[in-house]
Amino acid sequence: MTHFKTSAGLILIGLISTPVMAQSYTCAIPEQLVTVVSEPIADLPLNAIGVRADRAVLQETSGIASFYGNVEVQRNNQRLFTEQAEINQQSGSIEASGATSFNDGFVQVVSEDFRLASASDSAQLSQARYQLSENGARGKADLLELSPSQVALYGSSFTTCPDPVPAWQLSASEITISEDEARGEAWHARFEMFGVPVFYLPYISFPTTDARKSGLLFPTFRSSSKNGAEFELPYYFNIAPNMDATVTPRYMAERGLQGQVEFRYMDTIRETQLNFEYLPEDRSLETDTSRFLWHVDHQVNWDENWRGYINGTGISDDDYLNDFGSEFASRADTQLYRHLQVDYFSDDWHTQIRAEDIDVLGPYRSPYRSMPVISTRYEQGDNRFTYSVYSELAHFRNQNDSTDYASRMHLQPTLNYSVEKPAYDWLAEVGYSFTYYNQTSPDPTVAASVKRSLPNLRWRGRLNFERELDWGGDSYRQTLQPQVQYLYVPYTDQSDIGIYDTTLMQEDYNGLFRARRFTGLDRIADANQVTIGATTSFLNDKAEEVLRFSLANIQYFEDSETQLFNGNTEVATGSADFAGELSFRINDRWSFNSAIQYDGELNRTQKSQTAVEYRKDHQNLIQINHRTATNLLDEDIEQIGMQGAWNVSPQWQVAGNWYYDLNNSFTNDAMLGVQYSNCCWAVQISGYRRINRNLEAFQPNQMQVIGQPEFDNGVSVQFIIKGLGSSNRGLLDMLEQSLFGYRRPFYLSN
User: Fold this and answer.
1) In the predicted model, what is the mean pLDDT of the chain?
2) In the UniProt record, does the keyword RNA-binding occur (predicted)?
3) For residues 662 and 678, is the Cβ–Cβ distance under 8 A?
4) pLDDT digits (tens, 9 = 90+) for 294-330
5) Are 145 and 134 in contact (CB under 8 A)?
6) What is the pLDDT of residue 161?
7) Is 253 within a domain?
8) How far apart are CA 587 and CA 626, in angstroms?
9) What is the Cα–Cα distance from 604 to 581, expressed in whole angstroms?
10) pLDDT value at 153 more than 80
11) Residue 365 neighbours by CB under 8 Å, 6+ apart
C-alpha cells in the first residue's frame, strides 16, 4: 500500500529500531542535539513508516520514492529529519543526504548522511555527533552504525560531561554501546583530561547505566611515611544479580604488593560478606613475615522463629590495623570481637546458642573463649505478675593455656510484680541465682568446683509529671520523671571463682538503675543501696525535645566487697556515685551535649564528655568536643578535639579533624581533606598526621616517652570519574578513617 502527497506523504515500509539504554545520572543533561517541534505524522500501525515532506516523487518502475524539503520520516518512536531522502520500497532501504538528524528515544544523532539497509537491519551515519537521551553521554564518530541491540562508533569519542570542552573523554578507534547489557566497550582508547591524553587502554569496558557491571574501578593514590607511595586499582566482578566480588591489588613501596578480596551474596533469607587481605612478605620488617586480615559477616533468617548470625575479624598481628587501616575496625580499637549466634524465638521462649572470642591487641591478658554458651529464657505472666526462668550452660577456655578451662551452669528464677499508670509505675522483683562451676586452672586460688546461691531483691518506682509553660515567648511542655530504686543482694565470697566473661558495666545515668554492677555471672556484686534520680525534658509545640537533663546518684548503706581483679571495684559505706547527662538543642542547627560519671568516694570524675555541634544538614557540620577518662589502662586521659565537614561551594568540600592530648601536650590525630567535584569528575586530596600505635613493641605500664611520640604522616589522592561506574563518596565518610572517627556526641561509650 502506498500513499503520498506533495505536502505530506505517508508510506508504509519497515524501518530499523535502534534502542540504546541511557544511563541514569544526576548531572544536568546538555541541550538536545535533536529538537522535535512538529506533531507526530499519524497513529501509524506498528513498524509502519510515515513520511512528511514539501515535495515527493515516486518512480513506478524502480519503486524509489524521493522526498525533498523538510523531510521527516517516522516509525514508532523513531524520527529522521533531513532535506532529501530516498526510500526503496522493494528493498526497504533509506538514504538521506545533507544535514541529517535522527532520534529514537535512546540516542540522538546529527550527521552528514543516513543509510539504512533493511536486509541487515542496520543504519550508518557518517561524520556524526551523538548523544544518549537520558544521561547526556555524547561524542563524535567518523562512522556511527545503529543496530537493534547496540550502537557502534568508529573513530569516536565518549564523555558524560555536558561542557562544550569536556573535562574528560575516551577517544577510541572503536566504541560499542550495548542496550541489552547496559554497557560500553572501547578498543585502543586514550583517556583524556582537558584534551591531554593521560593513559592508553588497549581495551576498556564501562557501564552505561547505574546497573552493576564487571570492570576496572578507578585507582587511588596515597603516600605515607610508613608505607611509602601507594597505588590501588580495584576490579569489580558482577557475578550474578545477587552476588559480586571485588579484587584490589594494593602496591606499597615500603612493604610490597598486597591483595584484597571482597565477596558479597544475598538472597531472600541470608546476607553474606567475606573479606580477605594478604601481604606475602612485608619488606619493611626485618623478618620475612606474611600479614593478613580476614572478615566474615553472615546473617540468616530461616523463618519467623529461627535466625543466625556470624561476625568476626582476624588479623595476623597486633599492628595490622595501625599499619594498613581497615573498614571493619578503627586504628584506635584495642580488641576484636568475634561471635557466632543462633536464636530461637516463640511467644514464651527465647533460646540462644553462641560462641564468643575476643582478640586483645597488645600484650594484655586475653579473655576466655566462650565455646559455647547455651541460654534459655522462659517467661509467663499477665499485665502485673510475671514469672521467668533464665538458665545458662557455658564452657570457657583460656586462649593461651590449654590447661585453663571451666564449665558453668546457672539457673535463675525471677518473680516480678509491676503496676503501670499514666501518673506512675513501679516494679517489685525478687529472684534467686544458683550457679555451679567446674574449673581447671593453674591459679591455686581457683577451686575445682564451686556452688554459689544468691537471692536478690529490687524495687523501683517512677512518677510522671507534666506541665505547660511559656519561656521566651514560646510555649513548651515540661515533663519530670523522678525515680527511686532499692537493691539488695547479700555478700558471699566469690574469690575462688575464675573471671571468664565478667567486667564492670558503664555507670552512666541508666546504668545506675541496673540490677547488677558487672556483666556476666562470675561476679554478682553484693548490694544494699538506693539510687535516686530524675529526668526532665522540655518539648516545643511540635513535640520536639529541646532540652533534657538527667541526674542520679547511688547511696551505699553497706560496703560492697565483691571485686574483680583489684580493689578498684569495691564500694565503701556512705560513698556515692553520680551520673548526669545534659542535652540542649539550642535551635535547628546548634546543639550542646554533656555527660559525666563521678566517683563520690574518690572525689574524682571517672568519665566525662562535652560536645558543641553545629549541623546545617547531613553534609555540613562542625563539632568541638572534650573528653576525660581516669584509670583507663592505668592512665588518665584528657582530650580536646574538633571535627567537621563543609560544602564551601557546590563544587568544593572541606573536611578535617584535630585531637589534642592535654595531659601529654601533643596532637595525637589530625586530618584535613579537600574535594573538588562537578558533574563530570572529582578529585579528593587529604593529608593526615596520627600517633603511631606500635602494639607489638608496647609493654604494659611502659607508655611511649612523653613528648617524643612516634607519628605517621601521609597524603592520599583519589580521582573519581563520573559516568564510568565510579562512586562519589563525600569527605564526611573520610572522617571515619581517622584514628577516632566522627561520633554523634551523645554517649560516653562511643
Assistant:
1) 82
2) no
3) no
4) 999 999 999 989 999 999 999 998 888 888 888 888 7
5) no
6) 83
7) no
8) 21
9) 17
10) yes
11) none
**Separation of alpha carbons 180 and 210, rounded Å:** 14
Q: Which residues, other chains included, contact 274 with Cβ-Cβ below 8 Å and sequence gap of 6+? A: 261, 262, 263, 264, 295, 296
Residues 372 and 442 in one domain: yes
- Nearest to residue 547, comparing CAs of 594, 588, 590, 584? 584
DSSP letter assigned to residue 736: G
Instruction: Report whether pLDDT(124) > 50.
Output: yes
Number of H helices, E strands in the chain: 2, 43
The CB density around residue 92, as the number of other CB atoms within 10 Å, is: 17
**Cα separation, 498 vs 512, whole angstroms:** 26
Cell numbers at residue 242, please? 545477587
Question: CA dist 586 to 536, 537, 546, 547, Å?
Answer: 16, 14, 7, 8
- Name residue, grid cell 531472600: 268
Amino acid code (one letter) for 587? N
Please check whether residues 521 and 616 belong to one and the same domain: no
Q: In the numeric block, which cell numbers belong to residue 137? A: 553521554
505 lies in some domain: yes
| pLDDT tens by residue, 356-408 | 888 888 777 778 889 899 999 999 988 899 999 999 999 999 988 889 999 99
Closest CA to 474 of 541, 388, 384: 541
Q: What are phi and psi of 748, to 5 degrees?
A: -65, -25
Q: What's the whole-number mean pLDDT along residues 409-437?
A: 95
Q: How far apart are CA 686 and CA 692, in angstroms?
A: 18
Residue 737 has pLDDT above 90, yes or no: no
Residue 459 maps to a domain: yes
- How many residues are given for the chain? 750
**Structural domain contains residue 229:** no
When pLDDT is cut at 50, 70 and 90, the band that residue 697 belongs to is low
pLDDT, residue 714, reads 81
| Start-to-end Cα distance in the chain | 79
Global pTM reads 0.72
pLDDT band at 27 (very low <50, low <70, confident <90, very high): low
Helix (H), strand (E) at residue 323: helix 320-324
Phi and psi dihedrals of 186, rounded to 5?
Answer: -135, 140
* DSSP per-residue codes, 650-718: SSEEEEEEEEEETTTTEEEEEEEEEEEE-SSEEEEEEEEEEE---TTT-BTTBPPPTT---EEEEEEEE
Rounded Cα–Cα distance for residues 144 and 39 (Å):
27
735 three-class SS? helix
> Which residue reads 593453674 in cell numbers?
442
Identify the weakest region by mean pLDDT among 194-208, 254-268, 307-321, 669-683.
194-208
Nearest by Cα to 685 from 719, 716, 714: 716
- Residue-wise pLDDT for 127-143, tens only, equals 999 888 767 788 999 99
Measured CA distances, 98 to 107, 117, 409 (Å): 20, 18, 91
Looking at the structure, tell me whether residues 609 and 471 fall in a common domain. no
Q: What is the three-class DSSP state of 321?
A: helix
Instruction: Tell whether 407 and 517 lie within a shared domain.
Output: yes
Domain ends where: 211, 226, 241?
211
Please list the alpha-helical segments (H only) found in 384-444: none
**Who wins on pLDDT, 232 or 333?**
232
Domain boundary among 170, 186, 211: 211
pLDDT at 378: 95
CA distance linking residue 280 with residue 289, whole number of Å: 7
How many Cα atoms occupy the beta-carbon half-sphere of 543 within 13 Å? 0
94, 115 Cβ separation under 8 angstroms:
yes
Q: Are residue 485 and residue 612 in the same domain, yes or no?
A: no
- Expressed as residue numbers, the domain containing 656 is 597-750
- On whether both 72 and 166 belong to a single domain, the answer is yes
